[in-house]
Amino acid sequence: MSTSKKSFFANIKYDFPAGLVVYLVALPLCLGIALASTGRSDLLFSGIIAGVVGGIVVGALSGSALGVAGPAAGLVIIVLTAIDTLQSFEAFLLAVVLAGVIQIVAGLLKAGIIGYYFPSSVIKGMLAAIGITLILKEIPHAFGYDKDFIGDEAFLQTDGHNTFTELYYSVKYSSTGAIIISLVSLGLLLLFDRPFMKQIQLFRFLPGALFVVMIGILLNVLFQVVRPEWAMGGEHLVQLPIASSPQEFLSFFKTPDFSAITNPNVYVVAITLAIVASLETLLSVEATDKLDPYKRSTPTNRELMAQGVGNMVSGLVGGLPITQVIVRSSANVESGGRTKLSAITHGVILLLSAIVIPTFLNLIPLASLAAILLLVGYKLSKFSLYQGMYRLGWDQFVPFVVTVIAILMTDLLKGIAIGMVVAVYYILRKNYRHSHHYKKEEYKDGEVIRLILSEEVTFLNKGSIGLTLEELPENSTVIIDGSKSVDIDYDVLEIIQNFKLHTAPLKNIKIETIGIRDVNAVGGH
Protein backbone atom coordinates (compact mmCIF):
# COMPACT_ATOMS: atom_id res chain seq x y z
CA MET A 1 0.00 0.00 0.00
CA SER A 2 1.32 3.47 -0.87
CA THR A 3 2.28 6.00 1.79
CA SER A 4 -0.62 8.30 0.82
CA LYS A 5 -3.14 5.47 1.23
CA LYS A 6 -1.62 4.54 4.60
CA SER A 7 -1.86 8.13 5.83
CA PHE A 8 -5.44 8.43 4.52
CA PHE A 9 -6.57 5.38 6.51
CA ALA A 10 -4.26 5.98 9.50
CA ASN A 11 -7.12 7.38 11.60
CA ILE A 12 -9.82 4.94 10.53
CA LYS A 13 -10.30 3.70 14.11
CA TYR A 14 -11.43 7.27 14.94
CA ASP A 15 -13.03 8.24 11.63
CA PHE A 16 -15.24 5.18 11.15
CA PRO A 17 -17.08 5.52 14.50
CA ALA A 18 -17.42 9.27 13.92
CA GLY A 19 -18.73 8.67 10.40
CA LEU A 20 -21.30 6.24 11.81
CA VAL A 21 -22.55 8.83 14.32
CA VAL A 22 -22.71 11.51 11.61
CA TYR A 23 -24.70 9.06 9.46
CA LEU A 24 -27.24 8.53 12.26
CA VAL A 25 -27.55 12.32 12.67
CA ALA A 26 -27.72 12.93 8.91
CA LEU A 27 -30.34 10.29 8.05
CA PRO A 28 -33.37 12.00 9.68
CA LEU A 29 -32.07 15.44 8.70
CA CYS A 30 -31.84 14.45 5.02
CA LEU A 31 -35.38 13.06 5.03
CA GLY A 32 -36.90 15.89 7.10
CA ILE A 33 -35.31 18.63 5.01
CA ALA A 34 -36.34 16.87 1.77
CA LEU A 35 -39.97 16.68 2.88
CA ALA A 36 -40.00 20.31 4.05
CA SER A 37 -38.18 21.54 0.92
CA THR A 38 -40.32 19.79 -1.69
CA GLY A 39 -43.59 19.17 0.14
CA ARG A 40 -43.74 15.80 -1.65
CA SER A 41 -43.20 12.36 -0.13
CA ASP A 42 -42.18 10.98 -3.54
CA LEU A 43 -39.12 13.26 -3.47
CA LEU A 44 -37.81 12.20 -0.05
CA PHE A 45 -34.88 10.43 -1.70
CA SER A 46 -33.61 13.77 -3.02
CA GLY A 47 -32.43 14.48 0.52
CA ILE A 48 -30.58 11.16 0.72
CA ILE A 49 -28.90 11.86 -2.64
CA ALA A 50 -27.74 15.26 -1.37
CA GLY A 51 -26.40 13.63 1.80
CA VAL A 52 -24.50 10.99 -0.17
CA VAL A 53 -23.01 13.57 -2.56
CA GLY A 54 -22.15 15.88 0.34
CA GLY A 55 -20.35 13.06 2.10
CA ILE A 56 -18.52 11.34 -0.76
CA VAL A 57 -18.00 13.98 -3.47
CA VAL A 58 -17.58 17.12 -1.35
CA GLY A 59 -15.79 15.14 1.37
CA ALA A 60 -13.21 13.93 -1.13
CA LEU A 61 -12.63 17.34 -2.76
CA SER A 62 -12.83 19.56 0.32
CA GLY A 63 -9.83 20.79 2.26
CA SER A 64 -11.85 20.70 5.49
CA ALA A 65 -10.72 17.99 7.89
CA LEU A 66 -13.97 17.77 9.86
CA GLY A 67 -16.64 19.62 7.86
CA VAL A 68 -19.61 17.59 6.62
CA ALA A 69 -21.86 18.71 3.76
CA GLY A 70 -25.46 17.84 2.99
CA PRO A 71 -28.91 19.36 2.52
CA ALA A 72 -29.37 22.39 4.77
CA ALA A 73 -32.40 23.60 6.70
CA GLY A 74 -31.47 27.19 5.83
CA LEU A 75 -32.34 26.55 2.18
CA VAL A 76 -35.77 25.01 2.81
CA ILE A 77 -37.89 28.10 2.10
CA ILE A 78 -35.75 29.04 -0.92
CA VAL A 79 -36.11 25.54 -2.40
CA LEU A 80 -39.85 25.33 -1.71
CA THR A 81 -40.47 28.74 -3.30
CA ALA A 82 -38.18 27.98 -6.25
CA ILE A 83 -39.94 24.72 -7.12
CA ASP A 84 -43.28 26.54 -6.99
CA THR A 85 -41.92 29.36 -9.20
CA LEU A 86 -40.35 27.04 -11.77
CA GLN A 87 -43.36 24.69 -11.74
CA SER A 88 -41.08 21.68 -12.03
CA PHE A 89 -38.63 19.82 -9.80
CA GLU A 90 -36.54 18.95 -12.87
CA ALA A 91 -36.23 22.64 -13.80
CA PHE A 92 -35.18 23.31 -10.22
CA LEU A 93 -32.45 20.67 -10.55
CA LEU A 94 -31.04 22.67 -13.49
CA ALA A 95 -30.86 25.71 -11.19
CA VAL A 96 -28.93 23.60 -8.64
CA VAL A 97 -26.42 22.61 -11.34
CA LEU A 98 -25.97 26.25 -12.38
CA ALA A 99 -25.59 27.29 -8.73
CA GLY A 100 -22.71 24.80 -8.52
CA VAL A 101 -21.08 26.39 -11.57
CA ILE A 102 -21.38 29.84 -9.93
CA GLN A 103 -19.76 28.52 -6.74
CA ILE A 104 -16.83 27.06 -8.69
CA VAL A 105 -16.30 30.41 -10.43
CA ALA A 106 -16.53 32.18 -7.05
CA GLY A 107 -13.85 29.88 -5.67
CA LEU A 108 -11.59 30.54 -8.66
CA LEU A 109 -12.09 34.28 -8.14
CA LYS A 110 -10.97 33.87 -4.49
CA ALA A 111 -14.35 34.89 -3.07
CA GLY A 112 -13.78 32.53 -0.14
CA ILE A 113 -11.86 35.31 1.59
CA ILE A 114 -15.27 36.57 2.81
CA GLY A 115 -15.18 33.78 5.37
CA TYR A 116 -12.28 35.44 7.20
CA TYR A 117 -14.36 38.56 7.93
CA PHE A 118 -16.82 36.95 10.33
CA PRO A 119 -15.88 38.06 13.89
CA SER A 120 -15.09 35.29 16.37
CA SER A 121 -17.79 36.51 18.76
CA VAL A 122 -20.45 36.06 16.06
CA ILE A 123 -19.22 32.59 15.06
CA LYS A 124 -19.20 31.43 18.69
CA GLY A 125 -22.66 32.96 19.10
CA MET A 126 -23.81 30.96 16.09
CA LEU A 127 -22.49 27.73 17.64
CA ALA A 128 -24.20 28.43 20.96
CA ALA A 129 -27.47 29.39 19.23
CA ILE A 130 -27.50 26.25 17.11
CA GLY A 131 -26.91 24.23 20.26
CA ILE A 132 -29.89 25.83 22.02
CA THR A 133 -32.00 25.56 18.85
CA LEU A 134 -31.23 21.85 18.58
CA ILE A 135 -32.31 21.29 22.18
CA LEU A 136 -35.53 23.29 21.80
CA LYS A 137 -36.39 21.78 18.41
CA GLU A 138 -35.64 18.18 19.37
CA ILE A 139 -37.65 18.11 22.60
CA PRO A 140 -40.95 17.75 20.65
CA HIS A 141 -39.51 14.80 18.69
CA ALA A 142 -38.23 13.29 21.94
CA PHE A 143 -41.78 13.64 23.32
CA GLY A 144 -43.31 11.97 20.26
CA TYR A 145 -44.85 15.13 18.79
CA ASP A 146 -43.49 15.30 15.23
CA LYS A 147 -45.45 18.05 13.47
CA ASP A 148 -42.29 19.95 12.47
CA PHE A 149 -39.51 18.37 10.44
CA ILE A 150 -36.27 17.28 12.12
CA GLY A 151 -33.54 19.79 11.35
CA ASP A 152 -35.69 22.95 11.27
CA GLU A 153 -33.70 25.92 12.60
CA ALA A 154 -36.17 28.77 12.06
CA PHE A 155 -38.18 30.33 14.88
CA LEU A 156 -41.36 30.44 12.78
CA GLN A 157 -42.15 26.89 11.67
CA THR A 158 -43.84 25.52 8.58
CA ASP A 159 -46.54 23.92 10.76
CA GLY A 160 -47.76 27.36 11.88
CA HIS A 161 -46.20 27.15 15.34
CA ASN A 162 -42.96 28.64 16.62
CA THR A 163 -40.11 27.18 18.65
CA PHE A 164 -41.76 27.89 22.01
CA THR A 165 -45.40 27.08 21.22
CA GLU A 166 -44.18 23.77 19.79
CA LEU A 167 -42.83 22.91 23.24
CA TYR A 168 -46.29 23.47 24.74
CA TYR A 169 -47.97 21.18 22.20
CA SER A 170 -45.27 18.54 22.61
CA VAL A 171 -46.05 18.32 26.34
CA LYS A 172 -49.80 18.41 25.72
CA TYR A 173 -49.71 15.64 23.11
CA SER A 174 -46.70 13.70 24.42
CA SER A 175 -46.30 9.96 23.95
CA THR A 176 -45.28 7.77 26.89
CA GLY A 177 -43.41 5.37 24.60
CA ALA A 178 -41.42 8.18 22.97
CA ILE A 179 -40.49 9.69 26.34
CA ILE A 180 -39.27 6.31 27.65
CA ILE A 181 -37.20 5.70 24.51
CA SER A 182 -35.74 9.23 24.70
CA LEU A 183 -34.80 8.95 28.37
CA VAL A 184 -33.23 5.53 27.93
CA SER A 185 -31.37 6.79 24.84
CA LEU A 186 -30.05 9.86 26.68
CA GLY A 187 -29.00 7.73 29.64
CA LEU A 188 -27.10 5.35 27.37
CA LEU A 189 -25.42 8.23 25.51
CA LEU A 190 -24.26 9.78 28.80
CA LEU A 191 -23.02 6.37 29.96
CA PHE A 192 -21.06 5.82 26.75
CA ASP A 193 -19.55 9.28 27.19
CA ARG A 194 -17.89 8.23 30.47
CA PRO A 195 -14.12 7.61 30.33
CA PHE A 196 -14.34 4.04 31.65
CA MET A 197 -16.64 3.02 28.76
CA LYS A 198 -14.05 4.23 26.27
CA GLN A 199 -11.55 1.81 27.79
CA ILE A 200 -13.61 -1.11 26.45
CA GLN A 201 -12.24 -2.12 23.05
CA LEU A 202 -15.65 -2.75 21.42
CA PHE A 203 -16.95 0.72 22.28
CA ARG A 204 -13.85 2.40 20.89
CA PHE A 205 -14.86 1.27 17.41
CA LEU A 206 -18.66 1.10 17.67
CA PRO A 207 -20.13 4.37 18.97
CA GLY A 208 -22.78 4.62 21.65
CA ALA A 209 -25.20 6.18 19.17
CA LEU A 210 -25.38 2.89 17.26
CA PHE A 211 -26.39 0.98 20.41
CA VAL A 212 -28.89 3.72 21.28
CA VAL A 213 -30.63 3.24 17.92
CA MET A 214 -30.68 -0.56 18.33
CA ILE A 215 -32.09 -0.32 21.88
CA GLY A 216 -34.69 2.16 20.61
CA ILE A 217 -35.85 -0.32 17.96
CA LEU A 218 -36.00 -3.17 20.52
CA LEU A 219 -37.96 -1.06 23.01
CA ASN A 220 -40.49 -0.08 20.35
CA VAL A 221 -40.92 -3.73 19.30
CA LEU A 222 -41.40 -4.62 22.99
CA PHE A 223 -44.06 -1.91 23.33
CA GLN A 224 -45.92 -3.38 20.34
CA VAL A 225 -46.20 -6.66 22.24
CA VAL A 226 -46.65 -5.49 25.84
CA ARG A 227 -48.23 -2.02 25.57
CA PRO A 228 -49.40 -1.36 21.98
CA GLU A 229 -50.61 2.16 22.91
CA TRP A 230 -47.00 3.13 23.69
CA ALA A 231 -45.58 1.88 20.40
CA MET A 232 -44.25 4.36 17.84
CA GLY A 233 -45.40 4.16 14.24
CA GLY A 234 -45.85 6.19 11.05
CA GLU A 235 -44.40 9.70 11.30
CA HIS A 236 -42.69 8.82 14.60
CA LEU A 237 -40.31 6.48 12.77
CA VAL A 238 -37.74 7.03 10.02
CA GLN A 239 -39.59 7.01 6.68
CA LEU A 240 -37.08 6.09 3.98
CA PRO A 241 -38.54 5.28 0.54
CA ILE A 242 -38.34 1.54 -0.17
CA ALA A 243 -37.93 0.28 -3.74
CA SER A 244 -39.50 -3.06 -4.67
CA SER A 245 -37.11 -3.53 -7.62
CA PRO A 246 -33.81 -2.14 -8.99
CA GLN A 247 -35.80 -0.24 -11.62
CA GLU A 248 -37.91 1.47 -8.97
CA PHE A 249 -34.76 2.36 -7.00
CA LEU A 250 -33.26 3.97 -10.09
CA SER A 251 -36.48 5.94 -10.55
CA PHE A 252 -35.66 7.78 -7.32
CA PHE A 253 -32.89 9.55 -9.24
CA LYS A 254 -34.01 12.47 -11.43
CA THR A 255 -32.26 14.43 -14.17
CA PRO A 256 -32.47 18.19 -14.83
CA ASP A 257 -34.78 19.60 -17.46
CA PHE A 258 -32.21 21.26 -19.74
CA SER A 259 -34.98 22.74 -21.88
CA ALA A 260 -35.56 25.22 -19.03
CA ILE A 261 -32.18 26.81 -19.78
CA THR A 262 -33.97 29.71 -21.50
CA ASN A 263 -36.15 30.43 -18.46
CA PRO A 264 -34.74 33.57 -16.73
CA ASN A 265 -36.23 32.44 -13.40
CA VAL A 266 -33.84 29.48 -13.43
CA TYR A 267 -30.88 31.88 -13.29
CA VAL A 268 -32.46 33.94 -10.50
CA VAL A 269 -32.90 30.77 -8.44
CA ALA A 270 -29.36 29.60 -9.27
CA ILE A 271 -27.79 32.90 -8.15
CA THR A 272 -29.88 32.93 -4.95
CA LEU A 273 -28.92 29.35 -4.12
CA ALA A 274 -25.24 30.00 -4.85
CA ILE A 275 -25.10 33.08 -2.59
CA VAL A 276 -27.01 31.61 0.36
CA ALA A 277 -25.34 28.16 0.14
CA SER A 278 -21.89 29.80 -0.05
CA LEU A 279 -22.57 32.03 2.96
CA GLU A 280 -23.83 29.08 5.03
CA THR A 281 -20.81 27.05 3.98
CA LEU A 282 -18.32 29.78 4.90
CA LEU A 283 -20.02 30.29 8.27
CA SER A 284 -19.91 26.56 8.95
CA VAL A 285 -16.25 26.37 7.88
CA GLU A 286 -15.30 29.09 10.38
CA ALA A 287 -17.34 27.44 13.14
CA THR A 288 -15.98 23.95 12.47
CA ASP A 289 -12.39 25.19 12.44
CA LYS A 290 -13.00 26.72 15.89
CA LEU A 291 -14.29 23.35 17.15
CA ASP A 292 -11.39 21.40 15.63
CA PRO A 293 -9.16 20.26 18.54
CA TYR A 294 -6.14 20.44 16.19
CA LYS A 295 -7.04 24.00 15.07
CA ARG A 296 -6.54 23.29 11.36
CA SER A 297 -7.50 25.98 8.87
CA THR A 298 -9.80 25.17 5.94
CA PRO A 299 -8.90 26.75 2.55
CA THR A 300 -12.13 28.61 1.86
CA ASN A 301 -11.69 29.01 -1.91
CA ARG A 302 -11.14 25.27 -2.28
CA GLU A 303 -14.22 24.70 -0.12
CA LEU A 304 -16.37 26.87 -2.42
CA MET A 305 -15.16 24.90 -5.45
CA ALA A 306 -15.77 21.56 -3.69
CA GLN A 307 -19.30 22.68 -2.78
CA GLY A 308 -19.81 23.82 -6.36
CA VAL A 309 -18.84 20.42 -7.77
CA GLY A 310 -21.08 18.81 -5.14
CA ASN A 311 -24.08 20.91 -6.16
CA MET A 312 -23.47 20.17 -9.83
CA VAL A 313 -23.39 16.41 -9.16
CA SER A 314 -26.37 16.57 -6.79
CA GLY A 315 -28.45 18.51 -9.33
CA LEU A 316 -27.51 16.14 -12.14
CA VAL A 317 -28.74 13.04 -10.27
CA GLY A 318 -31.82 14.46 -8.54
CA GLY A 319 -30.50 15.76 -5.21
CA LEU A 320 -31.22 18.89 -3.21
CA PRO A 321 -28.68 21.73 -3.00
CA ILE A 322 -25.98 21.23 -0.37
CA THR A 323 -23.85 23.28 1.97
CA GLN A 324 -21.40 22.47 4.73
CA VAL A 325 -23.65 21.99 7.78
CA ILE A 326 -22.62 22.80 11.34
CA VAL A 327 -24.87 20.19 13.01
CA ARG A 328 -23.29 17.29 11.11
CA SER A 329 -19.83 18.85 11.39
CA SER A 330 -20.10 19.35 15.16
CA ALA A 331 -21.38 15.78 15.57
CA ASN A 332 -18.27 14.71 13.67
CA VAL A 333 -16.00 16.70 16.01
CA GLU A 334 -17.73 15.51 19.18
CA SER A 335 -17.56 11.88 18.01
CA GLY A 336 -13.80 12.02 17.67
CA GLY A 337 -13.43 12.33 13.90
CA ARG A 338 -9.92 13.31 12.84
CA THR A 339 -9.85 13.53 9.04
CA LYS A 340 -12.24 13.91 6.12
CA LEU A 341 -12.46 10.11 5.93
CA SER A 342 -15.24 10.37 8.53
CA ALA A 343 -17.34 12.59 6.21
CA ILE A 344 -16.73 10.23 3.28
CA THR A 345 -17.59 7.24 5.50
CA HIS A 346 -20.93 8.77 6.48
CA GLY A 347 -21.78 9.26 2.79
CA VAL A 348 -20.88 5.68 1.89
CA ILE A 349 -22.93 4.26 4.80
CA LEU A 350 -25.86 6.50 3.84
CA LEU A 351 -25.81 5.16 0.28
CA LEU A 352 -25.34 1.48 1.21
CA SER A 353 -27.99 1.51 3.93
CA ALA A 354 -30.53 3.14 1.60
CA ILE A 355 -29.90 0.35 -0.91
CA VAL A 356 -29.53 -2.67 1.38
CA ILE A 357 -31.49 -2.11 4.63
CA PRO A 358 -34.19 0.53 4.10
CA THR A 359 -36.81 -1.68 5.83
CA PHE A 360 -34.63 -1.96 8.95
CA LEU A 361 -33.94 1.79 8.95
CA ASN A 362 -37.68 2.46 8.97
CA LEU A 363 -37.89 0.77 12.38
CA ILE A 364 -35.76 3.49 14.01
CA PRO A 365 -37.82 5.73 16.35
CA LEU A 366 -37.23 9.45 15.84
CA ALA A 367 -37.13 9.72 19.64
CA SER A 368 -33.79 7.84 19.67
CA LEU A 369 -32.32 10.09 16.98
CA ALA A 370 -33.68 13.16 18.80
CA ALA A 371 -31.73 12.08 21.90
CA ILE A 372 -28.50 12.01 19.86
CA LEU A 373 -29.19 15.52 18.56
CA LEU A 374 -30.07 16.76 22.06
CA LEU A 375 -26.63 15.74 23.28
CA VAL A 376 -24.98 17.40 20.25
CA GLY A 377 -26.91 20.57 21.09
CA TYR A 378 -25.80 20.48 24.72
CA LYS A 379 -22.14 20.12 23.75
CA LEU A 380 -22.41 23.09 21.38
CA SER A 381 -23.90 25.36 24.03
CA LYS A 382 -22.14 24.47 27.27
CA PHE A 383 -22.22 27.01 30.10
CA SER A 384 -18.41 27.24 29.98
CA LEU A 385 -18.69 28.86 26.51
CA TYR A 386 -20.77 31.71 27.98
CA GLN A 387 -18.36 32.09 30.90
CA GLY A 388 -15.38 32.27 28.53
CA MET A 389 -17.03 34.90 26.34
CA TYR A 390 -18.00 37.00 29.40
CA ARG A 391 -14.40 37.00 30.62
CA LEU A 392 -13.26 38.44 27.26
CA GLY A 393 -15.13 41.68 27.93
CA TRP A 394 -18.25 43.45 26.70
CA ASP A 395 -16.96 44.05 23.16
CA GLN A 396 -16.91 40.27 22.69
CA PHE A 397 -19.76 39.24 25.00
CA VAL A 398 -22.44 41.63 23.71
CA PRO A 399 -22.17 40.62 19.99
CA PHE A 400 -22.04 36.98 21.14
CA VAL A 401 -25.27 37.24 23.16
CA VAL A 402 -27.04 39.33 20.51
CA THR A 403 -26.14 36.70 17.87
CA VAL A 404 -27.51 33.91 20.08
CA ILE A 405 -30.81 35.70 20.73
CA ALA A 406 -31.19 36.89 17.12
CA ILE A 407 -30.71 33.40 15.68
CA LEU A 408 -33.14 31.89 18.19
CA MET A 409 -35.80 34.47 17.33
CA THR A 410 -35.33 34.49 13.53
CA ASP A 411 -33.13 32.06 11.60
CA LEU A 412 -29.44 31.43 10.99
CA LEU A 413 -28.63 34.02 8.31
CA LYS A 414 -30.80 36.81 9.75
CA GLY A 415 -29.38 36.19 13.20
CA ILE A 416 -25.81 36.28 11.88
CA ALA A 417 -26.56 39.56 10.06
CA ILE A 418 -27.87 41.16 13.27
CA GLY A 419 -24.88 39.87 15.22
CA MET A 420 -22.52 41.23 12.56
CA VAL A 421 -24.03 44.72 12.86
CA VAL A 422 -23.40 44.75 16.61
CA ALA A 423 -19.90 43.26 16.24
CA VAL A 424 -18.95 45.85 13.60
CA TYR A 425 -20.18 48.62 15.92
CA TYR A 426 -17.78 47.45 18.63
CA ILE A 427 -14.96 47.07 16.10
CA LEU A 428 -15.51 50.63 14.87
CA ARG A 429 -15.63 51.91 18.44
CA LYS A 430 -12.39 50.12 19.26
CA ASN A 431 -10.72 51.48 16.14
CA TYR A 432 -11.94 54.96 17.00
CA ARG A 433 -10.42 54.74 20.46
CA HIS A 434 -7.14 52.99 19.66
CA SER A 435 -5.98 54.48 16.36
CA HIS A 436 -3.27 56.52 18.07
CA HIS A 437 -1.59 57.30 21.35
CA TYR A 438 -1.65 60.91 22.61
CA LYS A 439 1.49 61.63 24.63
CA LYS A 440 2.47 64.94 26.25
CA GLU A 441 6.14 65.51 27.05
CA GLU A 442 7.56 68.48 29.01
CA TYR A 443 10.72 70.10 27.60
CA LYS A 444 12.60 73.32 28.50
CA ASP A 445 11.43 74.97 25.31
CA GLY A 446 7.77 74.37 26.13
CA GLU A 447 5.11 71.71 25.87
CA VAL A 448 5.55 69.09 23.17
CA ILE A 449 2.69 66.80 22.24
CA ARG A 450 3.56 63.51 20.59
CA LEU A 451 0.83 61.77 18.58
CA ILE A 452 1.95 58.17 17.90
CA LEU A 453 -0.07 56.42 15.20
CA SER A 454 -0.88 52.70 15.50
CA GLU A 455 0.45 49.95 13.21
CA GLU A 456 -2.60 49.97 10.90
CA VAL A 457 -4.37 53.29 10.37
CA THR A 458 -7.48 52.94 8.18
CA PHE A 459 -10.30 55.27 7.11
CA LEU A 460 -12.15 53.97 10.20
CA ASN A 461 -9.66 55.99 12.30
CA LYS A 462 -10.30 59.18 10.33
CA GLY A 463 -12.84 60.60 12.80
CA SER A 464 -10.85 60.01 16.01
CA ILE A 465 -7.58 61.41 14.59
CA GLY A 466 -9.37 64.41 13.12
CA LEU A 467 -11.02 65.15 16.49
CA THR A 468 -7.68 64.84 18.32
CA LEU A 469 -6.05 67.32 15.93
CA GLU A 470 -8.91 69.80 16.33
CA GLU A 471 -8.54 69.71 20.13
CA LEU A 472 -4.78 70.42 20.14
CA PRO A 473 -4.02 73.53 22.23
CA GLU A 474 -2.86 76.73 20.56
CA ASN A 475 0.82 77.70 20.57
CA SER A 476 1.92 74.10 21.06
CA THR A 477 4.51 71.93 19.34
CA VAL A 478 3.21 68.65 17.96
CA ILE A 479 5.07 65.61 16.65
CA ILE A 480 2.92 63.20 14.59
CA ASP A 481 4.87 59.93 14.60
CA GLY A 482 3.97 57.35 11.94
CA SER A 483 7.26 55.45 12.13
CA LYS A 484 5.59 52.38 13.66
CA SER A 485 2.77 52.33 11.11
CA VAL A 486 2.83 49.67 8.41
CA ASP A 487 0.06 51.40 6.46
CA ILE A 488 -1.68 54.77 6.77
CA ASP A 489 -4.84 55.25 4.76
CA TYR A 490 -5.01 58.11 2.23
CA ASP A 491 -8.00 59.65 4.04
CA VAL A 492 -5.93 59.97 7.24
CA LEU A 493 -2.88 61.34 5.38
CA GLU A 494 -5.13 63.96 3.84
CA ILE A 495 -6.48 65.06 7.23
CA ILE A 496 -2.95 65.34 8.65
CA GLN A 497 -1.68 67.35 5.67
CA ASN A 498 -4.68 69.71 5.66
CA PHE A 499 -4.22 70.34 9.37
CA LYS A 500 -0.46 70.90 8.93
CA LEU A 501 -0.84 73.34 6.01
CA HIS A 502 -4.03 75.20 6.89
CA THR A 503 -5.33 74.78 10.45
CA ALA A 504 -2.07 74.60 12.44
CA PRO A 505 -0.70 78.00 11.26
CA LEU A 506 -3.93 79.71 12.33
CA LYS A 507 -3.54 78.30 15.87
CA ASN A 508 0.23 78.88 15.96
CA ILE A 509 0.84 75.13 16.24
CA LYS A 510 4.20 73.83 15.04
CA ILE A 511 3.82 70.44 13.33
CA GLU A 512 6.59 67.90 12.77
CA THR A 513 5.81 64.58 11.03
CA ILE A 514 7.90 61.40 11.21
CA GLY A 515 7.43 58.50 8.80
CA ILE A 516 4.38 60.07 7.10
CA ARG A 517 4.34 60.40 3.33
CA ASP A 518 3.27 63.49 1.45
CA VAL A 519 -0.39 63.19 0.49
CA ASN A 520 0.28 64.47 -3.04
CA ALA A 521 2.75 61.65 -3.62
CA VAL A 522 0.15 59.13 -2.45
CA GLY A 523 -2.66 60.61 -4.49
CA GLY A 524 -0.60 60.86 -7.66
CA HIS A 525 -0.38 57.13 -8.37
UniProtKB/TrEMBL annotation:
Membrane topology label: Multi-pass membrane protein
Broad class of where this protein is predominantly found: membrane
Matches recorded under Pfam families: Sulfate_transp
GO cellular component: membrane
Domain (SLC26A/SulP transporter) ranges: 13-392
Gene Ontology biological process terms, A to Z: transmembrane transport
Ranges that cross the membrane: 20-37, 43-61, 89-109, 116-136, 173-192, 204-223, 266-285, 348-377, 397-428
Record's protein name: MFS superfamily sulfate permease-like transporter
Keywords: Membrane, Transmembrane, Transmembrane helix
Cell compartment(s), UniProt: Membrane
Organism the protein comes from: Rhabdobacter roseus
InterPro entries (alphabetical): SLC26A/SulP_dom, SLC26A/SulP_fam
Lineage: Bacteria, Pseudomonadati, Bacteroidota, Cytophagia, Cytophagales
